Amino acid sequence: MLSARSATTVRATLPAVRGAVVEIAGRFYETMFAEHPGLLNLFNRGSRASGEQRKALAGAVVAYAEHLTGTGDVPMRSVVSRIAHKHVSLGIKPEQYTVVGRHLIAAVKEVLGDAVTPEVASAWDEVYWLFAVRLIAAETRAYQRDGIDPHHVSAPWKVVGRTEEAEDAVSLLLAPTFGGVPAHRPGQYVTVTADLGGGVVQARQYTLSRAPGHDTLRITVRRVRGRGDAPDGTVSTFLTRDVRVGDLVGVSRPAGDTVLDTGSGPLVLVSAGIGITPIAALLEHVAAVRPERPVIAVHAEREPGRHALREHVEEHGARLESFRSTVCYQRGDLPPGAVGGRVVPDDIPVPPDATAYLCGPVPFMRDVRTSLLRRGMPAVRIHFEVFGSDLWTTGAEQLPDPALAAAD
Ligand SMILES: Cc1cc2nc3c(=O)[nH]c(=O)nc-3n(C[C@H](O)[C@H](O)[C@H](O)COP(=O)(O)OP(=O)(O)OC[C@H]3O[C@@H](n4cnc5c(N)ncnc54)[C@H](O)[C@@H]3O)c2cc1C
Ligand code: HEM
User: Fold this and answer.
1) Collapsing DSSP states into helix, strand and coil, what is residue 312?
2) Does residue 385 line the site of ligand 2, with CB under 6 A?
3) Tens digits of per-residue pLDDT, 289-342?
4) Which ligand is nearest to the CA of 361?
5) Counting ligands in written order, which one lies closest to the CA of residue 234?
6) Which residues touch 102 (CB under 8 Å, ≥6 apart)?
7) Domain 267-377 falls in which CATH fold?
8) CATH architecture, range 4-147
9) What is the spatial distance between Cα 159 and Cα 173, in angstroms, rounded to a whole number?
10) Domain boundaries, the chain
11) Tens of pLDDT, residues 190-203
12) Residue 45 DSSP SS3
């Protein structure tokens, strides 16, 4: 708990920090990477350039300060869980929190200047460390539970299969080079580390697109094409274009907390584009272990040629006692049974006691979630996975961003 004295100071300075927090996070990354260039490979170079990274950190810190001072309503338990899962898949170590904390508080002082008295600095340092301790505890528990050495989270796995699933979407089958396939849950992801040459290494998360129980892991990757001035996606291009059967890639233990519940009520699975990957794993698992569980699947795709894992979903859906599937294509020739146009959220059925899983672009998931909530589905039963940093849950999307303002 925040001390009473610090709570008063944090409450009083929250508006100023909130207004400058994205700039503070930007300055933090700059100075940290200048002093620790070795960390450049740990962080996503793409999301640093696009500004997503600084917003994710800024949003989380502000949400935590609001939580500690009783002024916010962000569900911190799920925010902490999501960050901790990602950190564990990247092998973040407790000692690194000292480095991050030092640079973060220095950036607060630099950006806010004289407003940061020793009392203000100490109050925000307390916020940082309360957050850090909570994350370190969750991460240490996970490392111990799974017997993971955080210094060696990534192991070489061999690519033993490669399937072109659809336009710009490739599945890779990965086999361990040591030991077996670790236990995992449907909906989890692995962090894949790609050696891009020239000393550049980059890590990204890819959802396991099959249920547990196979002797290999499968990921299904959509190649991200650059638009306008933005370049092509680094790792997705490498995995879909360059990686061949026989190559080695770094793979972490499976992580992620958007996993199938243990209930027996109906499932509503809603996806868009490559957001089909967790849905494919959930569906396969339900068909194998609880085929009596009713499932409604709704998928949105730009056009039929881009629809990855369609056969997988159809095959496993057919094993269920009750399976209703709707696929909406915005354009192209419609295959039998498909619907033209976008998914209409209010048309998605909401059976009593249903649980929903959503995966796709945030605006799509937001529309679907709003509709499900309006029609009575409780928030705790609506799970979603964001394929990037989650700026939605923390409200980071709305934080003022000086870099964006300058670009306007
Ligand atoms: C939990 C989770 C699960 C995921 N599961 C899957 C999955 O199953 N399948 C899948 O395909 N993906 C999945 N992803 C997404 C995946 O992790 C990557 O984010 C995705 O492949 C893009 O990575 P990249 O390296 O190709 O792109 P990056 O290089 O990271 O680029 C990302 C974006 O930033 C833009 N960008 C880069 N540099 C700049 C710049 N200088 N200026 C402006 N813009 C820039 C790029 O144009 C691109 O649009 C998942 C993500 C998460 C978090
Ligand atoms: C209290 C301290 C910290 C907070 C609040 C924090 C917060 C976050 C958040 C919000 C994300 C994005 C999660 C998402 O995907 O939605 C993230 C990702 C990440 N964090 Fe942390 N973090 C902290 C400490 C650290 C430390 C000590 C390190 C290691 C130096 C670290 C390295 C990373 C990396 C590499 C990512 C992945 C994102 C990327 O590649 O850009 N974090 N963290």
Assistant:
1) helix
2) no
3) 999 999 999 999 999 999 999 999 999 999 999 999 999 999 999 998 999 999
4) 1
5) 1
6) none
7) Rossmann fold (3.40.50)
8) Orthogonal Bundle (1.10)
9) 6
10) 4-147, 154-251, 267-377
11) 999 999 999 999 99
12) helix
